[in-house]
Amino acid sequence: MSKITNIKKLSGYDLSGYSLMGSDLSGAQLAKARLRGANLAGADLSGADLSEADLTGANLSGADLYQAKLSGARMNGANLSHSDCTSADLTNCRLAGARLRECKLPGAVLRNAELNAADLSDSDLSAADLRGAKFSGAVFDRANLNRANLSGAKLFGAKLTNVKMRNAILRNADFTAAKLRGADISDADLVGVKLFNADMSHSNLCKSNLDGASVRAAILSGSNLRYAQINSANLSHASLTRADLSHSSFRESDLWGARVSGGDFSNSDLSGANLLATGMNKKFALSEFPDVTFSEQTHWDDQRIKRKRRETSAAHKKSIESETAKRGFFSRVFRARS
Question: I need a surface site. Which of 11, 217, 225, 274 has the fewest CB within 10 A?
Answer without folding.
Answer: 11
